[in-house]
What we know:
Blueprint: E1 2-3, H1 9-21, E2 35-39, H2 43-66, H3 70-74, E3 80-84, H4 87-97, E4 112-115, E5 118-122, H5 124-130, H6 137-156, H7 167-178, H8 188-196, H9 203-214, H10 219-226, H11 231-236
Parallel strand pairs: 2-3, 3-5
Antiparallel strand pairs: 1-2, 4-5
Helix pairs in contact: 1-2, 2-6, 6-7, 7-9
Amino acid sequence: MNAFKPMLGLTVLLAALAACALPVLGAKPAPVKWTLLVSPPSPAAEQAARASMDDAELLIASFAFSHDFGNAYSRGIAHEVQVFATKAEFDRFLQVTGEWPAQTPVPENVVSVFNNGRLLATAEADARRTNPAIDSHDAYVRILAHELVHGLHVAILRGDKSAMGPRWFFEGFAVAAAGQFDGQAISQADYRAVIAGLPKADYRLFGAVVRKLAQTHSYAYLIERARKPGFDEWALGAVKF
Length: 241
């Protein structure tokens, strides 16, 4: 595995974003500085990985500066991105390094993870082959963005991962911020099932619950409230159907 120079393309794109959309918000993103590794290394694979990460970072920058998380974004999310040519290589790396339990198979739909400032991902071509839900470049980019949102969430909490709240919330926040499953509706029964932790709940519903809460409460408020005891009980009474 070879380490490549930190990306320059994203700096240009973020500068354009700042010029076009961010002055109204009164803040500009700092240059993104992280190292890209591609396994096995090749110019084509590196170029594809950079393009996908550019798109994912722009999604996160837009969300962060639209919801007053610009300071957290500017402190940095990922310091390293590692992209594997195949899902099998990705899975093997997770298990060898302890990112995933060695005796537990990595599910087919898991093609990217974020942990301690490092984003690990399967290259787009094999991710799309492995996971039929990734049916476009946009869907792949939003998978990467979803993982980066976890990093943004931790940055907002100034590194306190234990304060991210229940799984339905931090995964639902990542779904909502990455713009995944935008059209997913939520019934009152499903809303309550998600918060109760019933098995039928999935990422689509996690995102729908958080979007429902965000209709009447800011994301900043929700993140702060999720740090406190009784968040599930509060969420049950926080919205009307």
